[in-house]
Amino acid sequence: MELSCWGGDWGLPSLHPESLTVMAYAKFSGAPLTVNTITNSWRAPKGDLPVLVSEDIVISQPAKILNFLRKQKYNADYDLSAKQGADTLAYIALLEEKLLPALLHTFWVEAENYCSVTKPWFASRIAFPLSLYLPGKMSREALNRILLTKGGPPLYSLTEVEAQIYRDAKECLNLLSKRLGTSQFFFGDTPTTLDAFVFGFLAPIYKVCFPRVQLQEHLKQLSNLCRFCDEILTCYFRLTVSGHSPAGQDTADANLQKLTQLVNKESNLIEKMDDNLRKSPQHPPRKLTTLKLAAGGEESSPMSRLSP
Amino acid sequence: MSLVAEAFVTQLAAAEPWPENAALYQQLKEEQILLSDNASSLAVQAFLQMCNLPIQVICRANAEYMSPSGKVPFIHVGNQVVSELGPIVQFVKAKGHSLSDGLDEVQKAEMKAYMELVNNMLLTAELYLQWCDDVTVEEITHPRYGSPYPWPLNRILSYQKQWEVRRKMKAIGWAGKTLEQVLEDVDQCCHALSQRLGTQPYFFNKQPTELDALVFGHLFTILTTQLITDELSEKVKNYSNLTAFCRRIEQQYFEGHEKESSAIAARSSKRSLLK
């Protein structure tokens, strides 16, 4: 299975929230995905990213990709109760309605951010001459979406809309922080779909260095959400502090896994041998009976044989 | 609104108690109002009933244009006009009535998340069905939406609204969905609501909150409005605890009133839609 998505920087495997969500879910559920990040070549896939290609089936939106992975038995939500599954849907809706507009604004609409960070970064990863057109198109689409969903009266100017969406986003971050509390993931100790979505939305805000950073500053005050992002990055993506995954890391992991398996097999064999030895008739189980001095002769011979 | 303006309005709101002549404006019940607007209006009425605040429902053909945000319903209280459930809940809270005070922080977060789920999935699905499904548009929406106005104004207004709604659907990615996919989303949403409700009387056990009002508004309207096909209401009927929930709220908050309740009116709109 191959996933095509936008690449990463600043310590993240991807800058694009939806790509990041799919990658995180694949790590959580153990799905074997080969990730192709878009580089400056002509082999760009058509349509929106991320795109999953699996034996001639092409799937494009994160929700559909996750459904497909679940049908292939890579299910990170296996242990969730029905109510927790319902909560997942509700919180994802909250993220899309309240946090996504501000995220889009920070990346694509805020003039300083867009011109100094987003546009050069995306343009450097798209082949010329598409790099002249595509970032502008993505920016226009983002602005369109914000205005159509949030921009009706009584908010009449872009500044009022911006104020409202950042207020909503900060409230959403506060709600997420309260919901997470002190636990490691949203539903206990194993990460699920909701953790993938929250990570996908929060990590770009947290890590990317923008000139205008009001949302990032608010997020940094919520230490449990920052801890949540950092933990997922270190445990599941194994990126070092500098943000580059060492080339030898994967092979070292593979070797470590093989070694662990060998050791496990060895210890299983040793256990079996132990069992056989114990069950063999020459060694009856030790009886904690008191020695009777009268029958000393009979007792002493089993006792002597029991000594290793 | 800036923070200062909001604080000012809250101050004004808190100063006066709830008057007797508070009014809720919506479009004409029999001929004009559409599924999504009816649902929103019913949600606000249910919320105000749950808070025990008297409200009079007034139907005007131009309610949409009178509203400060362009959306119905809106309430006219004292000398203030507030539209949509979210701002109305805050306004009522400023006056000292609230249904969600007894919830802790995590429960409040859950409540807000579920309200967004209903808005995100159910309301968008209703809008899709009304404005993007060609059969429904031709036979129900266009005749109803422009009915108070003479030709050609009725056609112009409904095409304009349709164009607006379709633009919004395209921006959020729903334009590419088929009707089956939309119905499946509705099913998923109802499944989630059903799981969350379980066997409790209300979503947060003993007391109703604004989430109960919102869910009631949407589900009751879906169940009692007749469209081209019954597929949408069938999706809701699959979940017996949701239908029981709607019946319970209807009995408790709407049936004991002398003035024409929206519940009875919704049933009569069922008859009038059979054109």
UniProtKB/TrEMBL annotation, chain A:
<keyword id="KW-0813">Transport</keyword>
<dbReference type="GO" id="GO:0007005">
    <property type="term" value="P:mitochondrion organization"/>
</dbReference>
<dbReference type="InterPro" id="IPR036282">
    <property type="entry name" value="Glutathione-S-Trfase_C_sf"/>
</dbReference>
<keyword id="KW-0472">Membrane</keyword>
<protein>
    <recommendedName>
        <fullName>Metaxin</fullName>
    </recommendedName>
</protein>
<feature type="domain" description="Mitochondrial outer membrane transport complex Sam37/metaxin N-terminal">
    <location>
        <begin position="19"/>
        <end position="138"/>
    </location>
</feature>
<dbReference type="GO" id="GO:0015031">
    <property type="term" value="P:protein transport"/>
</dbReference>
<keyword id="KW-0653">Protein transport</keyword>
<dbReference type="InterPro" id="IPR033468">
    <property type="entry name" value="Metaxin_GST"/>
</dbReference>
<comment type="similarity">
    <text>Belongs to the metaxin family.</text>
</comment>
<keyword id="KW-1000">Mitochondrion outer membrane</keyword>
<dbReference type="InterPro" id="IPR019564">
    <property type="entry name" value="Sam37/metaxin_N"/>
</dbReference>
<dbReference type="InterPro" id="IPR017410">
    <property type="entry name" value="Metaxin1/3"/>
</dbReference>
<dbReference type="Pfam" id="PF10568">
    <property type="entry name" value="Tom37"/>
</dbReference>
<feature type="domain" description="Metaxin glutathione S-transferase">
    <location>
        <begin position="169"/>
        <end position="232"/>
    </location>
</feature>
<feature type="region of interest" description="Disordered">
    <location>
        <begin position="275"/>
        <end position="308"/>
    </location>
</feature>
<dbReference type="GO" id="GO:0001401">
    <property type="term" value="C:SAM complex"/>
</dbReference>
<dbReference type="InterPro" id="IPR040079">
    <property type="entry name" value="Glutathione_S-Trfase"/>
</dbReference>
<dbReference type="Pfam" id="PF17171">
    <property type="entry name" value="GST_C_6"/>
</dbReference>
<keyword id="KW-0496">Mitochondrion</keyword>
<dbReference type="InterPro" id="IPR050931">
    <property type="entry name" value="Mito_Protein_Transport_Metaxin"/>
</dbReference>
TrEMBL record, chain B:
<keyword id="KW-0653">Protein transport</keyword>
<dbReference type="GO" id="GO:0007005">
    <property type="term" value="P:mitochondrion organization"/>
</dbReference>
<dbReference type="InterPro" id="IPR036282">
    <property type="entry name" value="Glutathione-S-Trfase_C_sf"/>
</dbReference>
<comment type="subunit">
    <text>Interacts with MTX1/metaxin-1. Associates with the mitochondrial contact site and cristae organizing system (MICOS) complex, composed of at least MICOS10/MIC10, CHCHD3/MIC19, CHCHD6/MIC25, APOOL/MIC27, IMMT/MIC60, APOO/MIC23/MIC26 and QIL1/MIC13. This complex was also known under the names MINOS or MitOS complex. The MICOS complex associates with mitochondrial outer membrane proteins SAMM50, MTX1 and MTX2 (together described as components of the mitochondrial outer membrane sorting assembly machinery (SAM) complex) and DNAJC11, mitochondrial inner membrane protein TMEM11 and with HSPA9.</text>
</comment>
<protein>
    <recommendedName>
        <fullName>Metaxin-2</fullName>
    </recommendedName>
</protein>
<dbReference type="GO" id="GO:0001401">
    <property type="term" value="C:SAM complex"/>
</dbReference>
<dbReference type="GO" id="GO:0015031">
    <property type="term" value="P:protein transport"/>
</dbReference>
<keyword id="KW-0496">Mitochondrion</keyword>
<feature type="domain" description="Metaxin glutathione S-transferase">
    <location>
        <begin position="187"/>
        <end position="249"/>
    </location>
</feature>
<comment type="function">
    <text>Involved in transport of proteins into the mitochondrion.</text>
</comment>
<dbReference type="InterPro" id="IPR050931">
    <property type="entry name" value="Mito_Protein_Transport_Metaxin"/>
</dbReference>
<comment type="similarity">
    <text>Belongs to the metaxin family.</text>
</comment>
<dbReference type="Pfam" id="PF17171">
    <property type="entry name" value="GST_C_6"/>
</dbReference>
<dbReference type="InterPro" id="IPR040079">
    <property type="entry name" value="Glutathione_S-Trfase"/>
</dbReference>
<keyword id="KW-0813">Transport</keyword>
<keyword id="KW-0472">Membrane</keyword>
<dbReference type="Pfam" id="PF10568">
    <property type="entry name" value="Tom37"/>
</dbReference>
<keyword id="KW-0007">Acetylation</keyword>
<keyword id="KW-1000">Mitochondrion outer membrane</keyword>
<dbReference type="InterPro" id="IPR033468">
    <property type="entry name" value="Metaxin_GST"/>
</dbReference>
<feature type="domain" description="Mitochondrial outer membrane transport complex Sam37/metaxin N-terminal">
    <location>
        <begin position="41"/>
        <end position="161"/>
    </location>
</feature>
<dbReference type="InterPro" id="IPR019564">
    <property type="entry name" value="Sam37/metaxin_N"/>
</dbReference>
